[in-house]
Amino acid sequence: MGTDNGAGAHKVVLGTYSTHEAAQHAVDILAEHRFPVEHVTIVGTGLKLEERVIGRWTLGQAVIAGASTGGWIGLLIGLVFWIVSPWAIGAVISAILLGLLFGVVFAAVAYALHRRAFASVSSVVADRYDVLVNEEFAEEARRVLATALSATDNATDNATS
Fold first, then answer.
1. What's the predicted TM-score (pTM) here?
2. Is the separation of the CB atoms in 37 and 31 below 8 Å?
3. What is the DSSP letter of 150?
């Protein structure tokens, strides 16, 4: 039989955090103190899609990005051919050139079809992040976090004194 990972166990809120990084830090603290973190879950509530604009996106940038990606793929394919027939270095060079060409063409077509003048990165973010723990481990988890946080506060207080 398989081991029970506690997926069906009742969970209680150990803490609520405003950022995912803060919730992960709480779990890191538990892990550093040898708490069985396989009983911990981070749940984001109030999910929304956030698209962060990182800059303008021009045809030139698209072509350069496409050429770069195509060149790397061509290099990879060329190296595979070179392994199979090591005396034919021309296969590597041809593969890189074809990769560059196809990368440029595909990037230009994608740019023309997409018609977006900016580049962005999308991510799902939450209003808050709850750190949940199986009910039978809740007291131990609270004790570990309280001890670790009070040790951090004492170290901070001693450093500023």
1. 0.59
2. yes
3. H
User: Which amino acid would we find at residue 123?
Assistant: S
What's the average pLDDT block by block, 10 residues per block, for the chain (161 residues)?
A: 53 94 95 94 95 93 96 94 83 93 96 88 94 95 88 55 50
Which residue carries 């999308």 as its tokens? 122
Q: What is the distance between the alpha carbons of residues 45 and 99, in angstroms, rounded to a whole number?
A: 44
* Spatial distance between the Cα atoms of 36 and 15, rounded to a whole number of angstroms: 17
The two tokens of residue 144 are: 């570990």
How many angstroms separate the CA atoms of 80 and 15, rounded? 51
Three-class secondary structure of residue 8 per DSSP: coil
Question: Which residue is listed with tokens 């595909």?
Answer: 106
Using the Cα atoms of residue 108, residue 114, residue 118 and residue 122 in order, give the sign of their dihedral. negative
